[in-house]
Amino acid sequence: MDFDNGLPIYIQILNLLKIKMATGEIKEGDKLPSVRDMATELKVNPNTISRSYTELEKEDLIYTQRGMGTFVTEDIEKLKALKKKMATKKIHKFILEMKELGFTKEELSRDILELKMEED
Amino acid sequence: MDFDNGLPIYIQILNLLKIKMATGEIKEGDKLPSVRDMATELKVNPNTISRSYTELEKEDLIYTQRGMGTFVTEDIEKLKALKKKMATKKIHKFILEMKELGFTKEELSRDILELKMEED
Amino acid sequence: MDFDNGLPIYIQILNLLKIKMATGEIKEGDKLPSVRDMATELKVNPNTISRSYTELEKEDLIYTQRGMGTFVTEDIEKLKALKKKMATKKIHKFILEMKELGFTKEELSRDILELKMEED
Amino acid sequence: MDFDNGLPIYIQILNLLKIKMATGEIKEGDKLPSVRDMATELKVNPNTISRSYTELEKEDLIYTQRGMGTFVTEDIEKLKALKKKMATKKIHKFILEMKELGFTKEELSRDILELKMEED
DNA sequence: GTGGTCTAGACCACA
DNA sequence: GTGGTCTAGACCACC
Fold first, then answer.
1. Residue D98: count of CB within 10 angstroms of its CB
2. CA distance D42 to D10
3. Is D75 left (phi over 0), alpha (psi -120 to 50) or beta?
4. Phi and psi at residue C101, in whole multiples of 5°?
5. Looking at the DSSP assignment, which residues form a beta bridge with residue A105?
6. Same domain assignment for residues B72 and B15
């Protein structure tokens, strides 16, 4: 796992966790690794992990129990909403940017399918 | 024109110019506004505009003639390539991210078309 | 009963007991539930209850008889004083904070009455 | 200025700034001291100030201009709303807590006025 | 053991 | 000069 790109490390970790929650790789109620464990595993300072967790907690996606650890929200609806929210946000942004470049949605729809052919 | 979001202002301006070049709103050989003019127009520090121009010059998309000003490249192929390059880059990034969220290209292709219906 | 907010759980429980003593819901000489019973009832670690009791004992509001359990003080004056102490402390803090915000006591006195109208 | 009490320093500073904004001691558009300046002035680590600023920015009460500094929101309505919000929140909390102790609003209203007599 | 806070000092991008 | 991020290491309260 690299953190080369320009984004802050704590954001990259936070996004990683969000994706895992959205795809169900991490489920409701699951215990997240302790701040220290995750820090050593990712070779990052504990403060950095702590910050990722704090941000996620502000979004009500995880919660902490004092002295017990950090857990994914029990509210499965939040996790479902997360996936949908992340997806539509990305799609809208994509279409907006491509429109600026002069693409219509039909072209995009077709290009994406064709791209599939090339890559597979 | 706001520069509220997280991106550096010089990047936002740079992208704006790129899009104008890609869509033909600015054509090969066109003269760009002087650093100072553009700075006052966008209410931005001249250094910021200067940096945008410098970056574009590094990409051979514009060039400066001392005492004359800054101009878009005469090489029309570069501009055509620009559009294609920007588009494919965005598309690849988009598909990659959506795959992480568990979407297939077929779903994306369909979703984009459906999205069209809702919005039009 | 939730313990979501920022306050330490043992403080919340301690305050709860204090209020019950101040309002007479728990009376002088009453036996308190055992640490273990209260812990299971409130779904909390026994250590936490233990700490609440210890703190109350330091304030001479309760006492323990080895092998018998934990009891509210027999000194009825202490309980009366408790109510007054808690009240004046809260009032002073409140007025201090509201003064910082630029409110006079007259305004507060009036606002509280008006607030009553709205809520009843 | 002491930071003795239990609250995190960054919260205390944050609250201080809020009060100054609510009372108009700091006005819309005002430039706040730089992170470093305020840190040396309050004899606190710059990170701590930074955190206070970050939290206030999340509440849209201040904003930062890259490389320029940190400023109070231009939106005067936000500042007015702040005062009202802080006040009602404190009042409600106060009344709630006093009700638990068995006080009616009429008693509170009277007690606050009487308290005035004592203190002046 | 857990997370939360704070300090000290560093580097970076931005204007 | 500005704020943003990160590391290193420490202390604390809580469970």
1. 21
2. 11
3. beta
4. -85, 0
5. none
6. yes
Residue C19 near residue C8, CB atoms below 8 Å: no
What's the structural domain count of chain B? 2
Which residues numbered 33-72 in A keep a CB inside 8 Å of some CB on B?
none
C54 belongs to a structural domain: yes
Distance CA(C59)–CA(A108), nearest Å, equals: 72
Find the CB nearest B95 among A86, A97, A112: A112
Is residue C100, in this structure, part of any structural domain at all?
A: yes
Task: Say yes or no: D82 and D68 in one domain.
Answer: no
Nearest residue of A to residue B80, measured between CA atoms: A101
pLDDT value for D4: 67
Q: Which domain, by its residues, includes A99?
A: 78-119
Q: What is the pTM of this model?
A: 0.82
Q: What is the token pair recorded at B77? A: 């192929």
Cα distance between residue D13 and residue D32, in whole Å? 13
The answer, yes or no, to whether C and B have at least 3 beta-carbon pairs within 8 Å is no
Query: Which parts of chain C register pLDDT below 70?
Result: 1-5, 115-120
Q: Do B53 and B83 sit in the same domain of this protein?
A: no
The answer to whether residue B114 scores a pLDDT higher than 80 is no
Give which of B18, B109, B120 to mutate to test A binding, by max A Cβ within 10 Å: B109
Provide the pLDDT for residue B120. 41
Instruction: Please state, in angstroms and rounded to a whole number, the distance separating the CA atoms of residues B106 and A116.
Output: 9
- pLDDT tens profile B14-64: 988 999 999 888 889 899 998 888 888 888 888 889 989 988 998 889 988
From chain A, the residues in CB contact with B102 under 8 A are: 22-23, 83
Q: Is the CB atom of residue A9 positioned under 7 angstroms from any atom of strand F?
A: yes
- State the chains in contact with D (3 or more Cβ–Cβ pairs under 8 Å): C
Residue of B nearest to A95 (CA): B112
Same-domain check for residues B34 and B93: no
User: Is D38 a domain residue?
Assistant: yes
Q: Check pLDDT > 80 for residue D119.
A: no
Same domain, A55 and A65: yes
Residue C31 main-chain phi, psi, to 5 deg: -90, 135
Which one is predicted more confidently, D32 or B2? D32
* Alpha-carbon gap: B26 to the closest alpha carbon of chain A (Å): 13
Q: Which of A65-69, A110-114, B113-117, C67-71 has the lowest mean pLDDT?
A: B113-117
CA distance C12 to chain D (A): 13
Query: A61 and A15, same structural domain?
Result: yes
3-state class (DSSP) for residue A65? strand
Tokens of D21: 């904004």
Within-domain flag for A99: yes
